[in-house]
Design a protein that fits this description.
This protein has about 210 residues and is of the alpha/beta class. It folds into two domains: about 160 residues, 3-Layer(aba) Sandwich (Ribosomal Protein L4, Chain: A), CATH 3.40.1370; about 50 residues, no CATH class. Helix content is about 30%, strand content about 10%.
Length: about 210
């Protein structure tokens, strides 16, 4: 299947690049798999930072608030009881929770194929013969992306990331550069434009084109 192709200067190429149908041309049949791959990516990148204090960690509460008997009130031994205002948290996060999810390799590859096929069908995928930002300047990358109509959230897929391209893109919050072997469903589905270099198509096909089911 042919796709919009550009030269390294950003002009239309005379010969259109062809995408692997086994990767970019499958019919998405399992949207639940896409959702699972998406949430798995988010869960595995989640930082476990939330920690609450139990009654034993909250400062104070060492003195018994009132005597055990004779007041007519319920007995309490500490003001840091979880049912008191200012007390500890009974069942809050401890910082040791495990939020990671597992997705087998076959399912992961199939989900990426489906995401790429959806992007291709929506006209989000284009190919550039080479992406050379020798100056490493952000302005040069912005001009090139404008020429190839890569707008809004842009995902650039290369065979390997060069220091110049990394430097040129690091200040662009809506541009992400990823090596072909690190493609994932999260980046693909969130991208408004996906720009592949010609050299990145081969490793993607080698990685994802072997299995069709």
């Amino acid at each position: 299947m042919a796709i919009a192709t550009y030269t390294k200067t950003g002009t239309k190429a005379t010969t259109a690049a062809k995408l692997d149908k086994q990767v970019f041309g499958i019919i998405p049949e399992n949207h639940d798999l896409l959702k699972l791959a998406y949430t798995t990516y988010l869960s595995n990148g989640r930082e476990n930072l939330a920690v609450t204090k139990t009654r034993g960690l909250v400062s104070g509460g060492g003195k018994k608030p009132w005597k055990q008997k004779g007041t007519g009130r319920a007995r309490f031994g500490s003001t840091r009881n979880p049912i008191w205002r200012g007390g500890g948290i009974a069942f809050g996060p401890t910082g040791e929770e495990n939020y990671t999810k597992q997705l087998n390799l076959k399912s992961k590859r199939q989900a990426i194929r489906q995401a790429l096929s959806l992007a291709s069908e929506s006209g989000k995928v284009s190919v550039i013969e080479a992406l050379e930002i020798k100056t490493g300047k952000t302005s040069d990358l912005v001009k090139l992306l404008a020429k190839v109509s890569a707008v809004r959230n842009v995902l650039i897929v290369v065979d390997h990331k060069s220091p110049e391209l990394t430097r040129a893109s690091k200040n662009l919050t809506e541009v992400k550069v990823v090596a072909a072997k690190y493609l994932n469903v999260f980046d693909i589905l969130n991208a408004d434009s996906i720009l592949f270099t010609s050299s990145a198509l081969a490793p993607v096909s080698d990685w994802l084109g072997k299995e069709t089911k």
